[in-house]
Amino acid sequence: MRQVAPETRTTPRSTRRAVTTALGGLVAAACGKSGKDDAALVLGDQVHLVRSRLEAAGELKGLPFQARWADFPGAAPLLEALNAGAVDTAFAGDIPVILAAAAGCPLKIVAATRSSGREVAILTPPGSDIRRVGDLKGRQVIVSSARGSIAHYLLLERLDQAGVKPSDVNIGFLSPIDASSAFAAGKIEAWATFGVYQFVAEAQGAQVLADGQGVNPGYGLIAASQQVLRNPVKRRALAEFLVRLQHANAWSVAHPTDYARLLSNATHMPATIATRIAALENSPLAAPNAVLVAALQHAADRLAGFGVIPRAPDIRALIDAQGLLA
Questions:
Q1: CATH hierarchy code of domain 12-115+218-318
Q2: Which of 120, 177, 263, 299: disulfide with 194, CB 3.0–4.6 Å?
Q3: Looking at the predicted structure, is the pLDDT value of residue 8 above 50?
Q4: Is the model's pLDDT at 14 over the cut of 80?
């Protein structure tokens, strides 16, 4: 089997490219605006999932503030943009948000949904002789998209459960798009990935070696910059956005077939993949609570134990104390 070199990873240059591409679209979308709307928000998204949900539910109609969208292929470049002040909000998985906070990103967690953990998995190609996680010893595993992603956390936890040291596995990192192409071409022995990329690979015959059920915290988080939260006008706009997203989540849960059809049309993903996403994304959007804090603190402590971050951040301190959702 032709393999991708274990040291291949998402580089700072490629991350900057992703940020530049997304922000280029944002600037283009903003052309012709007056720039006088103090309540304007730059909303960070991943593969159009948040925007598509809001549009499907009709919740973008009559917005009382100016919304600009910046779309990213993964959490790492999105959170880099949040850290740089290029976006006001970021929709990202729990593990990348923990990693960003540990690196000093000035963010607060303002809302969350929770999944079963089936949306992240370690995949093997059809016909692979890798049958269990222990078989990964001495083999190559590509992780998407970066060190500290939800897929990386899954791999580390599953290896630990199997009694395999990470140093005994050839772990490399690739962006989801690049890894998807390499996996389809038979160049990857095992792939730790998530979401749309995972579901497309499974539809093409990939086998699930292990998923995130019972391992990953499973939270999808809305993080906001502290600067936005300190601005009373933008804070009110953010509260309005979250209420509308909460309504959109409730609508998509109540109308999974309609949501899947509109999601497929908006993102051009196969209808079967959109249907699976609609079936799995059935958690309400809610304010962060004590259960979330405990789950994320455990994950942060584990990340520190694995050496992914130097020390675990205090998750309680990352929660917006005043709250924006009831």
A1: 3.40.190.10
A2: 120
A3: no
A4: no
CB 91 within 8 A of CB 79: no
Residues 108-115: what's their mean pLDDT? 96
| pLDDT band (50, 70, 90) for residue 37 | low
- If you search the block for the tokens 């079963």, which residue do you land on? 116
| Predicted TM-score of the model (pTM) | 0.85
CA distance 252 to 250: 6
Domain boundaries, the chain: 12-115+218-318, 120-211
Answer whether 12-115+218-318 and 120-211 agree in fold: yes
Contact 109, 316 (CB under 8 A): no
CA angle 201, 222, 278 (to 5 degrees): 40
**Over 90: is that where the pLDDT of 263 sits?**
no
State which CATH number among 3.20.20.70, 3.90.1300.10, 3.30.360.10, 3.40.190.10 fits the domain covering 120-211: 3.40.190.10
Instruction: Check pLDDT > 80 for residue 1.
Output: no
> Torsions phi, psi of 61, nearest 5?
-75, 135
> What band does 47 get if pLDDT is binned at 50, 70 and 90?
confident
CA atoms of 195 and 25, how far apart (whole Å) = 23
What 3 state SS string does the chain have? CCCCCCCCCCCHHHHHHHHHHHHHHHHHHHCCCCCCCCCCEEEEEECCHHHHHHHHCCCCCCCCCCEEEEEECCHHHHHHHHHCCCCCEEEEEHHHHHHHHHCCCCEEEEEEEECCCCCEEEEECCCCCCCCHHHHCCCEEEECCCCCCHHHHHHHHHHHHHCCCHHHCEEEECCHHHHHHHHHCCCCCEEEEEHHHHHHHHHCCCEEEEECCCCCCCEEEEEEEHHHHHCHHHHHHHHHHHHHHHHHHHHHHHCHHHHHHHHHHHHCCCHHHHHHHHHHCCCCCECCCHHHHHHHHHHHHHHHHHCCCCCCCCHHHHECCCCCCC
